[in-house]
Specification:
The complex is a heterodimer of chains A (262) and B (480). Chain A has 262 residues and is α/β, with parallel strands linked by helices. Chain A has a single domain, classed as 3-Layer(aba) Sandwich (Rossmann fold), CATH 3.40.50. Helices cover 40% and strands 27% of the residues of chain A. In chain A, the strands form 3 sheets. Chain A has a 6-stranded mixed β-sheet, sandwiched between helices. A 4-stranded antiparallel β-sheet of chain A has the order 2-1-4-5. In chain A, a hairpin with a 2-residue loop joins β11 and β12. In chain A, α6 packs parallel to α7. The longest helix of chain A has 15 residues. The mean pLDDT of chain A is 91. Chain B is α/β, with parallel strands linked by helices and 480 residues long. Chain B has one domain. In chain B, 25% of the residues lie in helices and 34% in strands. Chain B is built from 12 helices and 23 strands. In chain B, strands 5, 6, 8, 10, 11, 13, 15, 16, 18, 20 and 22 form an 11-stranded mixed β-sheet that branches. In chain B, strands 4-3-7-9-12-14-17-19-21-23 form a 10-stranded mixed β-sheet, with helices on one face. The longest helix of chain B has 17 residues. About 3% of the residues of chain B have low confidence. The chains are: A alpha/beta (262), B alpha/beta (480).
């Protein structure tokens, strides 16, 4: 189905700043994800991890000053946020948003149908959608009651994150970006969320897993680990890099990077 | 936020702005005792009704237009308004749909009120009022078989004079306020509905109001009486053509509920709101009041107010009967330069009377939305209870939301709760929806409908769908 020669995502020399005050956060990111690969991006607070996720998904408030991002050969940065989503870029939010009065079920069906329309597929009616929803909800052990409540309203931290993974499963993206999905999760919630993600690894879908801690990577085992520091990727390696970071902290790598820059 | 997007979304066009070319008979502009007499004569009214009108007119002359509402508009010249206009073909009054001018039927079709189909498919009885005259009332035979009277007001004056005479002005006296007095003097038509003892009205009753002629005021009058144990659900919808000049709509609605009777009154108001710069639009100055006269009676108002340049409207309940219940559910939307000052009054007189107020105000563009509500618990109202909830949603940063709750309690056994909130459609919420593939326009509609859900679910099913769409359409161009 996918041409393995075309990268899923190719970021070249990406620079981005905060629109309001011009502060540069990303200072030249290069990253290539092939179909089926899981890439982890780690780094200390303030290194630009979440900004990377926001810029890729088209969140307002950032300005790309240099560089390109191509997604399956298309110019991702030229697309509106909803177009990126419809083309297959999914962002699991670090802080999922509440939408009072809109049932989770209805919200999800609206989203699924927006994407199906884009793909030229017929819209799903309420019955067909319920069947699909039931199936996917099992993946993240989501209770039915949560599907009928307002989107994320009154959900616990773990429930919100599971809801993100559920949405990912329903929307069937080509590239899933997980922005600190592990933050605020206890070990059981983490296991369930990670289980949901692993079930979606099908050899063609790509993942960009942003995390502060190595812990998540015990559950979602990455093909490549990148370390982000001060808006740049300062080192890339295999999963053992994450373990090394866990043992030694970020300090040594930042020092090395600083030395190399000199 | 994304201004361009916001603008695009808030600036969708009014869809009911067409004018229908129907031959009309109208009288010259201006108001005088003679005009009141002409209207009464055109309707072939009995002497007592003419006297009632003249009394109202003479009193109106002594009154001042109210200025306490948080709305501003240039002074209305009441001598420039046409107080009577009727489609010519309807002069004799149609007796069945077959007699209705096909142009008119086509117009209602365009508005989404296909009278014929409604009659056959939906089982909703419809009374259609264009400019000043009721043009068709459907389904009346079926209703008559259970003793329900549902007809135009002018018809009721002739067919059921005793009922009209007994109840007209019993809830909203002709001297009640400036606009009610004006209406009492010049009202031309409206709907009349009488549900006899113990009868549950088997279908939704509905009236569609349409202002078609230029420079015409619409002054309709609706009266609904539910006898002991009777139940009725009534819906009104309104539209008007696009015109550069403002048009006046000053209606009066009176409801009376006897022991154990229930009246549910729903409004979807979509009068022309004016253009993006605030030019034109309907001035909607309406007095609506229900009297829970009987024990355990219940009156429930639900309104979705999306149209009009100015809305001045406070559907209220006088809770006289012990254990009677009053409800007010409202969604009011003010976009572009619309101004809405709306709310309710709940007057508790009987023992253990209960009232619920749920008001949802949505402001976008330069819209100004005011909730004004009064809860009065009189000394006699032992054990009265009220719950009020007023929420405001702001879209963009040029609009305003204002809340004026008045509470007056004269009995210490009363229980009152008041909740209020103001929120803004957040960039976060919009982005979250968009990241899931939902367009900005659909996202706004989704969020707004979620906000208004508590009220929308009070509407009869098919109208809830209509109202949802209307909210979305009215906000197009408003994301911000």
């Amino acid at each position: 189905m996918t041409n393995v020669n075309i990268p899923l995502l190719e970021i070249r020399n990406l620079h981005a700043s905060i629109e309001e005050d011009g502060t540069e956060i990303l200072r030249g990111i290069d990253l290539k994800i092939l179909p089926g690969e899981v890439h982890a991006v780690m780094g200390p607070n303030g290194s630009g991890k979440s900004t990377l996720a926001h810029v890729l998904s088209g969140r307002p408030g950032y300005k790309v000053t240099q560089g390109t991002v191509s997604f399956l050969g298309k110019d991702l940065l030229a697309m509106k946020p909803e177009e990126r989503a419809r083309e297959g870029v999914f962002l699991a939010f670090q802080y999922p948003v509440e939408i009072p009065g809109v049932s989770n079920n209805y919200f999800l069906r609206t989203a699924v149908n927006a994407i199906r329309r884009h793909r030229g597929q017929p819209e799903m009616d309420a019955m067909d959608f319920l069947a699909l929803l039931d199936e996917k909800a099992k993946l993240v052990e989501m209770e039915e009651a949560l599907l009928n409540r307002s989107v994320n309203e009154g959900f616990s931290g773990g429930e919100k994150k599971r809801n993100e993974v559920l949405q990912m499963a329903l929307l069937d993206p080509r590239l899933a970006i997980l922005d600190e999905t592990d933050s605020g999760l206890d070990i059981d919630a983490l296991r369930i969320a990670a289980g949901g993600v692993n079930a979606l690894r099908d050899g063609t879908r790509g993942f960009l897993v942003i995390t502060h801690y190595q812990r998540l990577l015990n559950y979602i085992v990455p093909d490549v680990v990148h370390v982000l520091s001060d808006g740049r990727i300062v080192r890339s390696g295999d999963k053992s890099l994450a373990l090394e970071l866990e043992a030694k902290g970020y300090g040594w790598i930042e020092k090395e990077a600083a030395a190399a820059a000199r | 936020m994304n201004d361009a997007l916001l603008n695009e979304l808030t600036q969708r066009e009014y869809q009911h702005g067409f004018v229908t070319d129907v031959e009309t008979e109208s009288i010259p502009a201006g108001l005088s005792e003679d005009v009141v007499r002409i209207i009464s004569k055109k309707k072939n009214e009995p002497e007592w009704l003419l006297e009632w009108r003249l009394k109202a007119y003479r009193h109106w002359l002594t009154m001042e237009e109210p200025s306490w509402a948080r709305v501003s508009y240039p002074k209305i010249d009441y001598q420039k308004i046409v107080y009577y206009a009727a489609p010519k073909s309807a002069k004799e009054g149609p007796t069945s749909l077959a007699d209705v001018d096909p142009e008119l039927l086509a117009m209602y079709e365009k508005l989404g009120v296909p009278l014929k189909e409604r009659e056959i498919l939906a089982g909703v009885a419809v009374d259609a009022v264009i400019d000043s005259v009721s043009v068709a009332t459907t389904f009346r035979e079926k209703l008559a078989s259970v003793g329900i009277v549902f007809c135009s007001f002018s018809e009721a004056v002739h067919s059921h004079p005793d009922l009209v005479r007994k109840w007209l002005g019993s809830v909203v006296p002709s001297r009640d306020n400036f606009f009610a007095a004006l209406n009492s003097a010049v009202f031309s038509d409206g709907s009349f509905c009488y549900i006899p003892k113990g009868v549950r009205c088997p279908m939704e009753l509905s009236t569609y109001f349409r202002i078609n002629q230029a420079d015409t005021g619409q002054f309709e009058r609706t009266l609904i009486v539910a006898e002991e144990g009777a139940t009725v659900s009534y819906l009104e919808g309104c539209t008007a053509p696009k015109r550069d000049v403002n048009q006046l709509h000053a209606a009066v609605v009176e409801l009376v509920a006897m022991d154990d009777a229930t009246i549910k009154y729903s409004t979807v108001q979509n009068w022309y709101p004016g253009d993006r710069e605030g030019k034109g639009g309907i001035y909607n100055f309406v007095t609506k009041r229900g009297k829970c006269l009987g024990k355990r009676s219940k009156i429930s108002w639900t309104q979705v107010e999306t149209g009009s340049a100015i809305t001045w409207k406070y559907p209220s309940c006088i809770l006289m009967g012990d254990d009677s219940i009053g409800e007010f559910y409202s969604v009011a939307l003010a976009n572009n330069y619309q101004q809405a000052d709306t709310g309710t009054k709940m007057i508790h007189i009987g023992k253990n009377t209960r009232s619920t107020i749920v008001s949802k105000g949505i402001s976008a563009g330069h819209g100004q939305n005011t909730y004004r509500g009064g809860v009065t618990i009189l000394k006699s109202a032992v054990g009265a209870r009220n719950y009020s909830q007023c929420d405001s949603l702001l879209i963009g940063d040029q609009c305003g939301a204002h809340t004026f709750p008045y509470i007056e309690v004269k009995n210490s056994s009363a229980t009152l709760e008041h909740e209020a909130s103001t929120s803004k459609i957040g960039e976060d919420q919009l982005f979250y929806c968009m990241q899931r593939g939902i367009s900005a326009e659909d996202a706004v509609s989704l969020i707004v409908n979620g906000f208004a859900k508590r009220v929308l679910k009070e509407l009869p099913m098919e109208f809830a769908v209509e109202a949802q769409k209307l909210l979305g359409v009215s906000l197009e161009g408003s994301v911000g």
